[in-house]
Amino acid sequence: MEADLSQPPPPRSSASSPSNDDGSIPRRNAANRPTRKEAMSGQLDKTKDKWSEWSERATDMSCDWVVDDDMKVLAEALSDEPTDGLGGEPTEKIRAVSDFAPIKERVRRGPKRRRDILLIFTIIFLEFLTYLLVRQMVNIIEFFSSWHGQRGRLRLALRNSKTYEEWKQRALALDDYLHLSEWKKSAPNAYYDAPLVRRVLRTLRELREKEDAEGVCAVLHAVLRSNFAGTESFRLYSESYYGTKELVQEFVDEVTRSIGYIRTVPPSLLPLEDKADFFRSVAKNLGASALCLSGGASFGYYHFGVIRALLDQNLLPRVVTGTSAGAIVAAFACCRTDSEIAQLLTPALADRITACSDPFSVWIQRAWRTGARFDTVEWARRASFFTMGNMTFREAWERTGRVLNVSVIPYDTHSPTKLLNYLTAPDCVIYTAVIASAAVPGILNPVVLLTKDKNGKLHPWEFQGRHKDGSLRVDIPLHSLHLLYNVNFSLVSQVNPHIHLFNFAPRGAPGRPVAHRSGKGWRGGFLLSAAEQYLKIELMKNFRVIRDLELLPEFGGQNWSAVFLQKFEGSVTIWPKSRLKDWFRILTDPDRDELARMIRVGQGVTWPKIKMIENRLKIERQIDLGREDVRRALEGLQPPALVHRTSSDPHFPSSAAGSRSRTSGTPTQDSGEPDPEERGVTFDSAAAEQGQREGEHATPAKRRQAILARLGLKGVAGAGPGGVTVTADRGARARAAGPERGERRRGGPIRTVGNRPRTVGGRARMAQVRG
């Protein structure tokens, strides 16, 4: 089940279920006031007190938010042994090899196996040294080719920019000096389908000027999907310091204006029901965006600069996930409003970062006694400031509208990873999830998660066990984000030091073109870029051999072979530039000067990505505004029961018995054959001539058919403007798919309306999107 991110947060009516008595999800109005049901149940005063207390203390830097009783509950939960049930006795381990809780016998490693492991690690070490040599050669070539003369002065001024506006002006000046502005004006490029984009742009303008709302909806259905015709390929942003092709920018602006036109079009031109179907469908086709903050110990404080840069441009996504060190920054961003974050995100915040403040004489004794350097309860006390006390995932969502996600893994080696959020763990206390996500073996012992009941009391989360650092197996949980929130565009801030060494974009990155050859070609030349890629693949191959053959011994009950074999990048990846000194301060708290530097560095590496992020989010937010406008209009026209979401599918409103969801094509009750418009029509090139002959008397379905055929598109027509799925008759080139993202374009992925097959000609068929 995917969460509907455009819906306002529901009220917290109980600790066990967020549903109303009729099965629908309760609603909270735009002002986040408690609902009538909440007030009638006696929760109104408690809710008012809770929200007013949070607002009064949110920006108080001296408030530590610690509740001593809650810390006692956590300490007792950590000291308790596992039990055999609710309130049961501690489980006694059976000391037999063949029973349910066997002891782990030590396996003797033969000398031959030790030699094999030593040989593999020797090969890895030699390949790593060669890799470092190649990278240094590339750095030397780039230094002597780009850091001298006027070009070097312009690049130095760009690096020393203090604000985004200052950086933007200097980036444009550098583009003009290197003649990259001419590249922007030239439409043709191998990484997107320029003729198709030009036809869509011209058609949208014509239809919008003619006030043809249904025609605009039909075209928008064709283009509102991830990387349509290659327009979201990061290569289009990697050959200049600011911006992309002018044709691509005009396309994004026109799509945004067209969505705004559909938002404001009167019901006489487009009925509210059709408008609601349109916004639901395109929101699902396009997907959502998410900000992912990686782990990395004290390197994680660079995330504060990324948050600051996005917040200043109003580009902070609604979905935020964090792992290990990134979890504390994500919690800080999701528990507070934008104004509160802006007020607190200053160098003075370093006074609240005291996780590593224990002296050597204290933590060395603790490590000898407990096997971990840090104390779990003490970390919980220090993390309470960032999570505003014992706030839960659901309460954070209700307060700010942002969706906080924290990645953890169970202490059991074979259990799957978990992504904690308001859907999977609504009543889980955030600071316990944050410290669990940072529980690296040897650094922090596994953590027991706490939950809050309806009376505000904390209890251990039953039947969940203990949890530890999520970055050991899933640092960036892209798969879970896609399943839960339909995230198709990920913004990753990657600061893991062991991954940072291998950050290399051979053809440049968004806002950072190749330093020589006027931004074209390969970094350091083709041979050095090819050698870098080859050595990196060889290193990954050897790590996979070690993992698959289980050659790496466990440390702290954890298999460490997966720390190099995850997916660490997203649609846009930000790599804050670290220093060699940071490696020696990896478990050290920053002071005010150091935090100010880290914030500046995080901002500086985010600014080159701003334009690409802005072009994506401006479209998403127009769709969200459209859904909200339609929802408010429908609430004023229909009984409340007809606009509540169902608990089984939050994307579609519940309807009367026997009605059909116009977007999914699935009836709420079996009503036999679908409507004529639901059966679908296959488009071909002859539809344009037929539509022209019929003129003004053509049906809406045939008019949409003619419009899409004129664009060179074909597809399946569903019910009204909300049921069109199309495929480009002449798809974008293979490179337009963005092979760097791992997307396979040959043959095209399968796409349907609402991700479900439609009934066409008596058979279930799916439309292919090749553009």
UniProtKB/TrEMBL annotation:
It is a single-pass membrane protein. Its EC number is 3.1.1.-. It holds the Pfam family DUF3336. One of its GO terms (cellular component) is membrane. Residues 35-53 have a biased composition (Basic and acidic residues). A motif (GXSXG) lies at residues 322-326. Residues 291-482 form the PNPLA domain. The chain crosses the membrane at residues 117-134. GO terms for biological process: lipid catabolic process; triglyceride metabolic process. Belongs to the PLPL family. Lipid hydrolase. This is Patatin-like phospholipase domain-containing protein. The gene is SPOSA6832_01727.
